Amino acid sequence: MQDLGLKCGIEIHQQLSGKKLFCNCPTQLRDDDPHFTVSRKIRAAAGEGGKTDVAAAQEQQRDKTFVYEGYKDTTCLVEVDEEPPHSVNEDALHTVLQFVKMVRSTPSPIVQMMRKTVADGSNTSGFQRTGLISRGGKIETSEGDVRIDNISLEEDAGKIIAEVGDIKTYRLDRLGVPLIEIGTAPDITTPQQCQEAARQIGMLLRSLPGVKRGLGTIRQDVNVSIKGGTRVEIKGAQDLKGIPQLVELEMKRQHELLQIKKELETVQLHAMRTMDVTSFFKKTDAKRVKEAVENGYVIMGMKLNDFVGLIGKELQPGYRVGTEFAGRAKIIAGVGGIFHSDELPNYGISEKEVELVRKKLECDRTDAFVLVVAEAWRCKIALHAVYGRAKELFTGVPSEVRKAQQDGTSTYMRPMPGAARMYPETDVPLLYPDMSEIELPELLDAKIKRFQEEYNLSADLAAFVVKNANSSLFEEIVGKYPTQKAAFIADVMTSMLVEIRRKYKIDTSQINDDHFREFFLYLDEGKIHKDIALDVLMDMAQGKFDISKYESLSTEDLHAVIKEIVEKNKGAPMGALMGMCMKKLAGKASGQVISAELKKLI
Fold this sequence. Notes:
twelve-stranded mixed β-sheet; four-stranded mixed β-sheet; Gyrase A, domain 2
C-alpha cells in the first residue's frame, strides 16, 4: 500500500447542542409535517476576488428550484434568509475553544466570519457562514502524530428531504446548527491510520459537554491522493469501520486512472462532434429506449477515437470508466445514465443497431462511442460532460469532490471548490477568542475507566453510559439515590432504551433528562418499583405516563386483592394464581412481592 505513496487527511464535522449559531432557535431536528414552505432559485455569486467558484457555477447550471420546509415554533427569519444573522452563539464558541485547547492548537486573535458560496440549495442564502478559529495542534496515533491544519466554527446545511426532477426539497430544522469542523494535514499514510485518526478525534469531540450525540451528528470526509495523482475529497464517510476500505478503493481508482493516462500517451482526442441517431432505434427491442423515443426524446451519440475497450475498464469493483462518464452526465445534465460501445450490444440494443451507430459516427475498429437518451438540449449537455471527463483521462486524476457509497466506492459530486467561493460576512461582528477561562473536560477514555473503578460498572456498561447517555446526569442520580445500584441506573439510561426500540419498536428520543429524574424520584419514594421499569419508560417515550396508573398499593390493599383472587379460584395451581394476580396488579406491585403474599395465603 505504501508503494502507491498514499497521502490522506480527514475533515470531521461535529454538531453542537443548545441554540443555533446565528439565532436563538433550538437545534431540535423534527420529522412532523412542516408549518410552511418557501421556494427559491439560487445563483452562484462571485467571491472576494471577483471570480465565480467552479463548483457553484456547475450547480447553477443545473437550474434547480429549491423548496424549504420550516416550523413556526423552531425556525425563524434567519433560516429563511429574511433577517440578518444575530451575533455568534457564545456557548458554541466556548465548546470550539475547549477542543482548541485539547489539541494544543493556536487560536486566531481575531476571527472574521466568511461566506462560502454554496449553490446546491442546502443554504437559503446561497452561502454557508464559517469562521477559522484556530490553526495547528496534533493528535497521536499508533502510526505517528497527525497534525491539525485548521479548526473552524460554521453553520450546518439544510437537510435534503426529496429531489424530484428539477425540484429539491430541504428542511430548515438542521440549517444553522453549530458545527465544529476539524481538518487534518495530509500526514496519514495508511487506511488503518485514517480510521484511527477519525476515531481519536471523535473521542475528543464526544468528551465535550456541548456536542450533540447520536446518528448523523458527526460526519467524516476523507481526502485521498497517491503519488502522481491529486487530492480527491470523499464526503459522507459515516461508518468508521468502512473508512479503510473507502481509502483503499480510492487508491485503486486513482492508480487505475494513472495507468490509463499512460495508455493514452500516443492518443490525441478529436474535437467533439455529436450526432442525432434516433432514427436507428424507432423499432428497437430495447424497451426503455423505445419508450423514450415514443415520448419525444432523442438519442444522440458521440465518438471517442481510440477509446475502444477503455470505457469498460474497471477502476473499482463493479465501477468502470463508463461509470465515471455516467456520473458526470447525471450530475451536470440530470440524465438517467449513458450507453457506451464497450457494453453493447446489450439491454435489448442489437448488433445491427450498434453497427448503424458506428457507421453514422464514422467509428473505426479502435474507436468507441457514447449514447444519451433525453431531450435534445439535455443530451448535448450530457455529452459535453462526458467529453470533458474523457479529456481529463489524459491528465490522470481530476481533483474533485465525491460521495461515499456503502460498498466503499464513491461517485462524482462536483469539481473541487477553490478560493473564489469565499468572501467576508459583513453582517456578523468580529470575534475575539479568549482562552483565559477555558477549562478542559474529562476525556472519554478517562471517564470510562473512572466509572469502572468508582461505580463498579463493567467495562462495556461504563463505555455504554459514557458514549450513549448523559454521563453527568448519571452521576447526579447515583449521588442523589445511594440506595440504588449504579449498574441499575446505568441500565435504565442505556440498555432498557435499546430494548424498547428494538423489541417494542417504540421511539425513545422523547425521553429526556427530566424523565429520568422523575423515574428515580418515584422509585425512591416507593411509588413505582424496578420490575415495571420498562413499562414506565415506554409510557414516558409515548407521552402517556401517569403516576396514578403505577402507584404501589398498600400492603393491606394488596393482601385484599390477592385474597379475593385465591377465594374465587380455589384449588387453582400456584402458577395460574400468580398469572391472575400479575394481570390484576400490573404496575401496582412487583412480582416478587405478589409471589411472597400469595404463598402466605395458600
